[in-house]
Amino acid sequence: MNMVEQKYQLIPGVELRKGSNVMIYGPTFSGKAMFAKSTFRKLINSNYGGIYVLTRETAEQLIEWLGNDYNPNKVKIIDCVTKSMTGEAKDTASIKRVTVMDLTGISAKISKFFEEFWRSGVKDVILVFDSLSTLLMYLNIQTVFRFLHILTGRVKMTGAIAFYIVEEGMHDEKTIVTLKQLFNGMIEFKEENGKKYVRFVSSLVKTEWFEIVVDENSVVIA
Amino acid sequence: MKAVTGIPVLDEVVEEFPESKTLTYWIDPEVEGNAFAMQTIYTNLERGFKCAYVTVTISPESVISEFEEFGWEVKEFENFEIVDLYSSYVGFPSKCKYNANPINLEEVEVLMKKVLEKFDIVFLPASSIIDVCGEEALRCIKDWCSLAKSIGKRVVLSFVAWPYSKEVKDGIIEISNALVKVGGIHHRVILGYYYGLVKADWKNVKSRAILFKLVRPGGVRAYIPKILVTGPYNAGKSSFVHAISNRAVSVDRLGTTVALDHGHLEYKGFSIDLFGTPGQERFDPILRMLGKEALGVILVVDSTKPETFPRAKQMLESVTHFGLPYVVAANKQDLPNALPPEEIKRRMVLPNDVPVIPISAVKGEGVYKVIDALLDLLIWREGEDELEI
Ligand SMILES: Nc1nc2c(ncn2[C@@H]2O[C@H](COP(=O)(O)OP(=O)(O)OP(=O)(O)O)[C@@H](O)[C@H]2O)c(=O)[nH]1
Ligand SMILES: [Mg+2]
Questions:
Q1: B223 within 8 A of B192, measured Cβ to Cβ
Q2: CA–CA dist B263, B249 (Å, integer)
Q3: B137-150 helix and B105-118 helix, angle to the nearest 10 degrees
Q4: Which residues in chain A are contacts of B90 at CB distance < 8 A?
Q5: DSSP symbols for A62-99
Q6: Nearest partner of A199 among A221, A182, A216, A179, judged by Cα
């Protein structure tokens, strides 16, 4: 199946199969997070269940951005920010808060959300992890790798699609190489002479760079 | 008063948590298993033991609120202390009397010696310590367990079984006097959770898997899995439920079921509830009613009536919609014109890995094989008959 291409033609010619784990890679402010968010929005609007893991903004901020597209039955959030800041925050059925170092908590909560979607007949799920770079600020690559080994396996098993954001320039080459082993491909962003570009790279394909325009709500090919 | 694990069923099996012992909860990384150690600690606080709870990846405030979510007001216990290895790691000043920075293992070692001397029971998040300090921290964990052993203290370890090296896993197994596996029932997603005793060196026993739920407030609660028995009209669903149950009731009118069949089965250490659906109705609402409780489905077909297979197949669509694993019971095998299981599988175009079990519900033949096949799908891995790490 070729769901993403059918419904979201960001990168022409790119097929994202179900069960794909994709790294979203590029420098700060290159449009990575907006790409992930707006793809997330598109997919939940075409009957996907969505799971968002946040380490850089709170659940409330994401909900505000989603506006009318927010529906707690379809959008499940793991907020790793609020608890690290205040320690006080109530969980709901669709919003769970953990500290960012608590990989066990994150993992168990993601798997619970997968179960809930599965049991309610929602078989298509998009997961966004924003971002692995935050995890790597607190935990070493071996630890993060073990965590991702389990998570990417689950994504594959359930046939979901998952995006993992990684900041370019924050990690050494070895870390990036280690991470890449876990993913089916990479959506790469760059900025050059004030213009932004995106391309898709995997072991099988490498598209050309496409110029993009990023605003507060979307990322579109120029 | 003696110390206990505080976990249902487990305490009946191990009887106590003796001094100088290390009790390890070996947890599937996708299962919320922290509650086990918390329940052990809380139960023993209530019994008057001095307990220390080490935290590395969660703030002390969050640890307390996690306890409180389960209804365990640890703050009210003077015999409770948090050992904070979190705050200084993330750069906050610690409010706990016992604290250290895990980056500095020597500092932690000094602190832990003090803690082990002062407290009766110490909780260590072994895998989190390894995650933060690296695999070399295994040596420290080993040292703390031996120290505890030599001075008559108890250690509770939680070990989240991420894909660590064999040395780490073996090391943890080696230092554990008792090992409790906390696992998930994997079926594309995780449909349920179980735990069971793998070993306890003060008792020569093992337990089978016990399904559990986390209840807030309440903690770890064993529960009874619900299995749905469905199939076309007259296939033998009620007969199956009656053949297999220790006790069963059906609400039938003119020989057909008008409400649910209900049976209860005690089998291989499991307590299982069976629900038979009326054959003439859509059973989506029933599946919805059993909701999160249902763990699997038994589809009963009349092996002499291939004309009912399309209906049976249609019923399976709902089952897959709800994401549940299923087995097929090829009933009425005692009749001369019964089709063999392979033929039924072929005609129904079932995936290869779906078990089709030949049975005769009226004669009671093969019926337990159906339960075995479902338990195999749910809990045991291939060839496995008891809990293994
Ligand atoms: N020969 C034979 N007859 C069976 C067997 N199992 C059930 N029957 C007969 O098949 C008929 C239907 O059995 P039930 O158990 O009532 O079937 P059911 O699926 O509950 O039927 P509904 O609730 O009406 O859908 C009865 O006459 C049973 O005696 C079997 O293994 N062999
Ligand atoms: Mg009946």
A1: no
A2: 6
A3: 20
A4: 84, 101, 138
A5: HHHHHGGG--TTTEEEEESSHHHHTS-----SSEEE--
A6: A221
What residues are paired with A49 via a beta bridge? A125
Which of A102, A105, A157 lies closest to B188 in CB terms?
Answer: A157
Quick one: fold of B10-217?
A: Rossmann fold (3.40.50)
Helices vs strands, H then E, count in chain A = 8, 10
pLDDT (0 to 100) of residue B382:
46
**Rounded to an integer, what distance in angstroms lies between the CA atom of residue A200 and that of residue B354?**
39
B224-378: CATH topology is Rossmann fold (3.40.50)
Q: What residue numbers bound the domain in which A69 lies? A: 3-221
Q: How many domains are contained in chain A?
A: 1
Summarize pLDDT for A45-57 with one digit per residue, the tens: 999 999 999 999 9
Does the CB of A84 have a partner CB in chain B at under 8 Å? yes
- pLDDT band of A2, cuts 50, 70, 90: very low
CA of B331 from ligand 1 middle (Å) equals 9
CATH of the domain at A79: 3.40.50.300
How is residue A32 written in tokens?
A: 């990575």
Smallest Cβ–Cβ distance between B321 and the set A109, A121, A147 belongs to A121
**Residues of chain B where predicted confidence (pLDDT) is lower than 70:** 207-208, 248, 250-259, 269, 280-293, 380-387
Q: What is the pLDDT of residues B196-205, one digit of tens each?
A: 899 999 998 7
A3 — pLDDT class (breaks 50, 70, 90): very low
